[in-house]
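tool=predict chain=A
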Amino acid sequence: MNTSRRTPVVIIGAGPVGVTAALLLARQGVRTLVLERHQDLYPLPRAVVVDDEVRRILQSVGVHEEFAALARPARGLRLLDARRRMIAEFARSLHGHHGFPQTSMFDQPELERLLREALARRPECELRGGVEVVSVTQDTDRPHGSTAPVQVTFRRDGSEEEEHVWADAVLGCDGAGGMTRDAIGAAWEDLHFEESWRVIDVRTSRRVRTWEGAEQICCPTRPATFMRVGEDRYRWEFRVPESEQLDGPEGRERLRELVAPWVDLPSDAPWDDFEVLRQAQYTFRARLADRWRRGRVFLLGDAAHLTPPFVGQGLCAGLRDAYNLTWKLARVLQEGRDERLLDTYEQERKPHARRVIRVAVAVGWAMTGGQDGAAALRRAVVGAACRVPGVTAAVSRDLSPALATGPLVRRRRGLTGRLLAGTFCPQPWVHHDGDRTRLDDVLGDSFAVLTAVPPTARMTAVATALGASTVHLDDLGDDGTLAAWLARGRADAVLLRPDRVVMDTVRAGTGDFTETAAWAPLLHTARRPADARPVL
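tool=predict ok
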């Protein structure tokens, strides 16, 4: 007997990306059903690093304070040669552009627990574990602008009975091996990186020779990565073939040799205080799905892109997907905004993900790739470049590039605001209603006009039409960060999207927000009477 129901959004996969997407939609009042094949949290560590942009996303779903209690800020990345001599150091600040440490180490099961607890507190969200999604189908032959619900078919563990749920949208957060990518007819684009690495997570009370950051050993024959994850938690990654054993009597000695630069282990006594929590072989790949959307089915996270781990951006990219898509989807579903607003998800995120993947691949090949003379030359060139004044500082600032010009990112002619468009607004501490708080907590979940000059009538009209707040810098009492940021960008006011990306800019006396901007028609209400005037 088949059973069916209807819900606004179905999310396939309850990892960090899927649960974060559900929480972001809940903040906008959108109900979700999250389907997950596992009954419980996966208990072993996987991702171990996020940046300050992701910490800001965690703030938006209300778990940043709990996450701060379990995260460990890292001081940066050191590139070392085979003899562990310094090639370069990329420092990371404890207070980045987004108001958090630029790099934070953590244990993924602990983050997932926080997110699941937050999900359980939201009446808009339902999590159903122990189910296998069988198919995702939709009618894609409709005229542009019209939509049909998506049918998701699944089975519960131990049951052959199929159940159906109809949704206005489906988010495929089911990872690289999930079925959603096939369901929309997407294929992988190979970005030409594939290496087999062993990842080893350890808990130990032994003295470990380390600093509060990550180390990349740049060696053509035995590249490695090492980082301290927690108070007594460490991760090593070694490029070794799958056939090489690192457990058992022979493997134990090989493991002792590999970790010897960091920790001393006896060869003739038990390692009672050196516990290997997990040892897994991974094939690090660089891939990008050739399409991220079909109709109302979207790909997010590892379902859409795979990034080698050398710059710690894998999970970060997935959470950026969720942050970019959910506010747009909520406005289409709840406010009837133009369906083309959803096209901007892939338009913005795919080029951004490609650039981040290319950075990771470049680091992988230049510092660890190959055993030929060209690899040695690449390492020498990188080492020389890193000694040029200002290079390491520039690389350390931000691994997340600005969004390209598009319908929701307006770069004006001339210098006005061009450097700000497509970038994130900084988040300093501000004073509001007598309290010291973070900027985003003042701006809320919608659009915002942030201005250093008295708001014009047009600014006010735009803010009203978008449901945006208008905030003057004088009312915030920050430390001067916002005024300096606007001045560097040659802007007096900015229009911020709900994800805090600068959508448009204004310089006094040279123009104003205008309804001829590319973003204006996308933010009109599509389902309105024929004789109604545009809301912008």
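The two ends are 50 Å apart (CA to CA). The longest helix spans residues 343-367.
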